[in-house]
């Protein structure tokens, strides 16, 4: 059977990854059966406004010890009670949901959930669509408050039932529950130097452990700041590499840990499109265009890039202030440069996650010509009369063109790890995949 759950955390407490891992352990300890394969952590559309934190759904395949209706019901009740007891239902945004799908559900449901999974990552799904699926296929489920968690619960089951998508892994270490809560009272204890050593020993197989964009102050991206159960998390290409890195980390005692199979770092949320006319709010896109004006910085420190494609001007593209040095790259773009932008479309703005520079226009400036005799800059001889060297009396009709050296190169640029979305594919991973394909 497949068990999926979502929306049990709040902005400050609990974590659905923790609850899913705990329930999987408790099911085994209570003699209900055993977990089969990986626990799954599936990130959904990052632009959804009613998410709590990372918009992740959790699930795992479970092999029940018995195959009777009575046993199934006891197992479902056990999981449902655990969720109801632990979910942060006092939070307005928290609307837990869980589903229980058995192996004999049939190929029609499997195909429908495959489409549902992909839609949940790239599109906007209403609760009614999830409720229709649950009803049409008589799926046992838990729905608390408005039951929005049913969307993620079904989506993660779709991912588990239809493998083959690009995946990565994350090792999550959890704190003792007595240490949860206000960080001013019980701050996390994770040694930054050990994180740096782990990162350097396992990169490029792991990523987003440390943000080196501020070289004097390396920032441990993998250590959260809220009061939730996570102590730290290591992301990478395989279970082995994230475990190796995690074993090098020096920290407060780890309550327990879990490795998840995930779609993080895959760009699964991005939709390639040909025209800005196709853009819909709360979706994420890849789109090519040409810079049409100088980059402008607004009062909030956000850099605004305006592009045009073959059909029309694009909405503004924004490199927000928290993206740090990425904004310096954006500021170097000039009209005529051709780029591919990657990001989410909200409030009529494409929020940049990364950018590929495809073509650099020549940066031409016009200055008074230099005298070929004395090498001094000529002066204007009057309106419409060209230029003249006052010393040598030499003349020139036109200004001299000068092409400046562009301090930027063709290629990809990304926001720093501390500003990166969970689903965004880091360049270190893109480079590794390109290298592997070339070697093959």
Automatic annotation (TrEMBL):
EC number: 6.3.4.22
Main location: cytoplasm
Top class in the EC scheme: ligase
Membrane-spanning residues: none
Catalytic reaction list: cytidine(34) in tRNA(Ile2) + agmatine + ATP + H2O = 2-agmatinylcytidine(34) in tRNA(Ile2) + AMP + 2 phosphate + 2 H(+)
Keyword tRNA processing tagged: yes
Superkingdom of origin: Archaea
Molecular function in Gene Ontology: ATP binding; ligase activity, forming carbon-nitrogen bonds
Domain TiaS C-terminal zinc ribbon: 368-408
Positions of the TiaS-like TCKD domain: 2-63
The family this protein is said to belong to: Belongs to the TiaS family.
Protein name per Swiss-Prot or TrEMBL: tRNA(Ile2) 2-agmatinylcytidine synthetase TiaS
């Amino acid at each position: 059977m497949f068990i999926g759950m979502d929306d049990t955390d709040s902005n400050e407490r609990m974590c659905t990854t923790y609850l899913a891992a705990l329930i999987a352990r408790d099911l085994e300890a209570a003699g209900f059966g055993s977990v089969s394969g990986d626990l799954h952590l599936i990130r959904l559309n990052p632009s959804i406004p009613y998410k709590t934190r990372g918009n992740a759904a959790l699930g795992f395949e479970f092999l029940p010890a018995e195959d009777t209706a009575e046993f199934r019901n006891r197992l479902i009740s056990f999981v449902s009670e655990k969720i109801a007891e632990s979910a942060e239902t006092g939070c307005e945004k928290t609307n837990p949901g869980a589903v229980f799908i058995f192996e004999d559900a049939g190929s029609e449901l499997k195909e429908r959930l495959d489409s549902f999974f992909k839609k949940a990552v790239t599109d906007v799904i209403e609760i009614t669509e999830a409720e229709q699926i649950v009803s049409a296929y008589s799926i046992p489920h838990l729905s608390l408050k408005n039951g929005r968690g049913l969307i993620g619960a079904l989506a993660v089951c779709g991912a588990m039932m239809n493998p083959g998508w690009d995946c990565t892994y994350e090792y999550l270490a959890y704190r003792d529950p007595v240490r949860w809560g206000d960080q001013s009272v019980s701050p996390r204890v994770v040694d930054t130097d050990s994180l740096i050593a782990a990162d350097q020993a396992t990169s490029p197989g792991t990523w987003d452990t440390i943000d080196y964009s501020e070289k004097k102050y390396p920032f441990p991206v993998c250590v959260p700041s809220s009061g939730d159960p996570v102590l730290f998390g290591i992301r990478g290409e395989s279970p082995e590499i994230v475990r190796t890195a995690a074993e090098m980390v020096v920290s407060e005692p780890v309550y327990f840990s879990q490795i998840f199979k995930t779609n993080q770092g895959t760009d699964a949320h991005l939709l390639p499109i040909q025209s800005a006319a196709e853009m819909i709010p709360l979706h994420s896109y890849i789109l090519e265009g040409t810079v049409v004006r100088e980059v402008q910085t607004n009062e909030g420190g956000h850099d605004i890039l305006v592009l045009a494609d073959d059909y029309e001007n694009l909405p503004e593209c924004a490199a927000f202030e928290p993206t740090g040095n990425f904004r310096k790259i954006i500021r170097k773009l000039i009209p005529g440069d051709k780029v591919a932008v990657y990001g989410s479309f909200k409030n009529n703005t494409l929020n940049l996650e990364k950018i590929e520079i495809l073509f650099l226009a020549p940066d031409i400036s016009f200055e008074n010509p230099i005298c070929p005799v004395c090498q001094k800059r000529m002066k204007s001889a009057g309106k419409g009369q060209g230029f003249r060297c006052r010393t040598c009396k030499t003349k020139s009709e036109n200004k001299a063109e000068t092409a400046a050296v562009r301090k930027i190169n063709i290629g990809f640029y990304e926001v720093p790890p501390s500003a990166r979305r969970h689903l965004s594919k880091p360049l270190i991973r893109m480079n590794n995949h390109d290298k592997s394909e070339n070697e093959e």
